[in-house]
Amino acid sequence: MSAAGKLIGVVKGYRRSRARQYNNQVLLYILADQKVLGSLVGAKVVARDIHGNVYRGRVLKVHSFRNCVVVARFKPNVPGQLIGARVEVMVS
Fold first, then answer.
1. Is the alpha carbon torsion for 34, 38, 41, 43 positive or negative?
2. Is residue 5 over pLDDT 90?
3. 46 burial class (0-12, 13-18, 19+ CB within 10 angstroms)?
4. How far apart are alpha carbons 91 and 4 in whole angstroms?
5. Does 2 have pLDDT greater than 80?
6. Shortest CA distance to 57 belongs to which of 17, 9, 21?
7. What are the tens digits of pLDDT across the range 42-91?
8. Phi, psi values for residue 19, rounded to 5°
9. What is the pTM of this model?
């Protein structure tokens, strides 16, 4: 865990199925230990783009404990240009 209760994550892509893509939900790869993932449910997430726009969201659930991936919902939706960008996860 980094300073001040913040973790770093990387946007891996939109949550999707075979025939549908959920533009308001993204998969986040969390750069932390697997044991921390369960406590991240409900944590706030902040993403910023190069233009200074701020996208705020919340962690919904754990997608994969083995691969350290969680699902987060954002409002407004995260644009496709943020795939691969770093985000901050506020741990309380």
1. negative
2. no
3. middle
4. 9
5. no
6. 9
7. 999 999 999 999 999 999 999 999 999 999 999 999 999 999 999 999 99
8. -120, 5
9. 0.89
**The pLDDT of residue 29 is above 70:** yes
CA atoms within 13 A of residue 72's CA, in its CB half-sphere: 35
Total count of residues recorded for the chain: 92
Q: Nearest-5° angle of CA 61, CA 20, CA 64? A: 25
Q: Which two tokens stand for residue 20?
A: 């549908």
CATH homologous superfamily of 3-90 equals translation elongation factor selb, chain A, domain 4 (2.40.10.190)
Map out the domains of the chain as residue ranges.
3-90
